[in-house]
Design brief:
Blueprint lengths: L1 H17 L11 H9 L32 H11 L19 E2 L2 E2 L2 H6 L4 H12 L8 H7 L6 H8 L6 H13 L7 H11 L5 H17 L6 H13 L3 H9 L10 H13 L3 H14 L5 H13 L3 H13 L6 H11 L6 H8 L4 H4 L3 H13 L4 H14 L5 H13 L3 H13 L6 H13 L3 H14 L5 H13 L3 H13 L6 H15 L2 H13 L6 H21 L1
Antiparallel strand pairs: 1-2
């Protein structure tokens, strides 16, 4: 068989070279090597049957005159082509070597016998598995009829062949496992798991896990960590977090210690299904074992935990990496800082993380620094801490923007420290930043809340000078301040000023002012005038406020009648 196969390859190679532009001269034997390597009789997969040694003089003097399919002509041409200038003669096939030795090639017969795979039967098995619908009876009965001799190499070849349905591979493996003389090995199980995991069917994944569990119970020393990790990854891809956790929990039963990838893939599987509580538990085990994956994967874990509101667990992961002088990607660090700033009790952790930025990284860390300033002002009410951090940014970077200044100005204004708020706005201007409408509005709100309407009006004048159009909130702040002081005439006048500056009052503005006029000023006439104004502007006043105007009007009329 091998002799005829070798001769056929030589014959085909001779024909191919005959059709070349210069068929008499061949510079190398690469074409023949390619032809040999592609033949199923000379497979070189994993453990080759024989070793090919290239001869650069192969076909170097091949004649043009090889014609037809006459075997004797081809054999003669091949034999004569290897006769060198020094008188060396090469006969590819002779009775003496029986076709097992060819100059330029060495055929290791022992390896052929060791890894002997019946190619015809292999092709029959693959044909049956790839088109199981054409098989007569069950797959197992068809396998028995083939009288197969199974070994590790044969089974691996079957499992590594593409385009075989995953359920058929599992069925073939189960049948092979029952055959006397065939032993399940780590290599065969690994090949099965990798092949089946190419499928994206949940049914195949669960069937594979059931088979692997059975193998783990009956065969000692066959499974390994990589096989289980591959299963966890498959369940993660399929969105089956609980099944992934089941595989992870089986490590101890099989006598394995999870490695860094085991923890990572399990956490990924659980977070994909938003099972963050269980993911935190696995994360805790990972930290206790000190088995952390690379920085990119740690960054992913931190991001997943932050999305699941497990910021404290994410921070512990960050600390573990920091102890090893390793840091996750900047995007994960920034996301963690922003997430920590959303809760009062974790803002101090975010402040601590800012010290880990290098001088170079600090230049591009405006977002995390601004998030911490916002958290200090709005969450912990630590305006002084926010102010110190802002001044630190001015000194060492990153340069603060309008948002950072506005958070501090707003915090100072709400705390009633208007002098410091105005100083901060002047500092903002000195750095080339233009205070926006929000900056002026929060300062006016602080003055209005303290009853200092004259100072608030001065700030309004500055705002109108620097901005062509203000927001309704700006005027609403002052109107509310005047109403609080029961200076309703000034409040109504300010409402008219809004329209002159292109700011259209909304229903809420009218409604609150009308309520103040009725409840505090008892001025139903001014309230009715505003109501007519609303109608002209196409605004609608709710029935409760309309009733309030009528009630005040009727009350005044009753008092007038009583006086008469």
């Amino acid at each position: 068989m091998w002799r005829s196969a070798t001769f056929s390859l030589f014959k085909q190679a001779a024909k191919n070279f005959r059709t070349a532009n210069n068929a008499g001269v061949v510079r190398s034997s690469s074409s023949l090597l390619t032809l040999v390597s592609k033949s199923p009789h000379f497979s070189t997969h994993n453990k080759p049957f024989f070793v090919l040694s290239q001869n650069p003089r192969f076909f170097s003097n091949l004649s043009h005159d090889i014609d037809g399919d006459d075997d004797s002509t081809v054999e003669s041409a091949i034999s004569s082509s290897f006769e060198s200038e020094e008188g060396r003669h090469f006969s590819p096939i002779s009775d003496e070597n029986d076709g097992t030795q060819v100059e330029g090639f060495e055929v290791d017969v022992d390896k052929i016998e060791d890894y002997g795979v019946d190619v015809d039967k292999l092709e029959s098995v693959l044909s049956l598995l790839q088109s199981s619908g054409d098989a007569v009876g069950s797959l197992e009965s068809s396998f028995r009829a083939m009288d197969l001799i199974l070994n590790e190499e044969f089974v691996v070849r079957v499992l590594e062949t593409p385009l075989v349905p995953a359920d058929n591979l599992i069925g073939f493996f189960k049948w092979a496992w029952k055959i006397p003389g065939f032993s399940v090995t780590t290599r065969t199980v690994d090949a099965l798991v990798r092949a089946v995991c190419q499928s994206l069917r949940k049914k195949d994944a669960y069937a594979l896990w059931d088979l692997v569990k059975e193998i783990g119970e009956k065969e000692n020393g066959v499974l390994n960590v990589d096989i289980l990790n591959e299963l966890i990854t498959q369940f993660a891809n399929l969105g089956k977090g609980k099944a992934g956790l089941e595989v992870f929990n089986a490590f101890g039963a099989y006598g394995f210690e999870p490695n860094a990838d085991s923890y990572y893939f399990t956490i990924e599987a659980l977070c994909r299904r938003s099972i963050f509580d269980w993911a935190s538990s696995v994360c805790e085990k990972m930290l206790n074992a000190g088995s952390l994956p690379d920085v990119e994967k740690v960054g992913n874990i931190i991001s997943w935990l932050c999305k699941g509101s497990k910021v404290k667990d994410a921070y512990l992961v960050y600390l573990s990496m920091r102890e090893k002088k390793k840091y996750p990607p900047k995007r994960s660090i920034n996301f963690l800082i922003v997430s920590l700033c959303r809760e009062d009790e974790t803002i101090s952790m975010a402040v601590d993380m800012l010290d880990d930025f290098s001088v170079e990284d600090r230049k591009y860390a405006i977002k995390p620094y601004t998030s911490v300033i916002r958290g200090l002002c709005r969450r912990s009410k630590d305006v002084d801490g926010a102010k110190r951090l802002l001044l630190k940014m001015i000194e060492a970077g990153p340069p603060p923007g309008n948002a950072a200044f506005n958070f501090v100005i707003s915090g100072l204004s709400k705390a009633g420290d208007m002098e410091e708020a105005m100083k901060m706005m002047k500092l903002m201007e000195s750095r080339g930043l233009k205070p926006d409408v929000y900056s002026y509005s929060v300062i006016m709100s602080g003055y209005a809340n303290g009853g200092m309407m004259e100072e608030a009006c001065r700030v309004l004048s500055l705002a109108k000078k620097n901005h062509s159009k203000l927001s309704p909130v700006t005027y609403h702040t002052l109107i509310r301040g005047y109403c609080k002081l029961e200076e309703f005439d000034k409040a109504v006048a300010l409402l008219g000023e809004m329209k002159d500056h292109g700011v259209q009052p909304n229903t809420d503005e009218y409604s609150k002012l009308i309520q103040s006029l009725c409840l505090k000023g008892l001025d139903w006439k001014a309230a009715e005038k505003l109501l007519e104004e609303m109608k002209d502007n196409g605004l609608y006043l709710n029935g409760v406020t309309r009733s309030l105007i009528r009630a005040v009007k009727e009350l005044e009329e009753e008092e007038g009648l009583a006086t008469e």
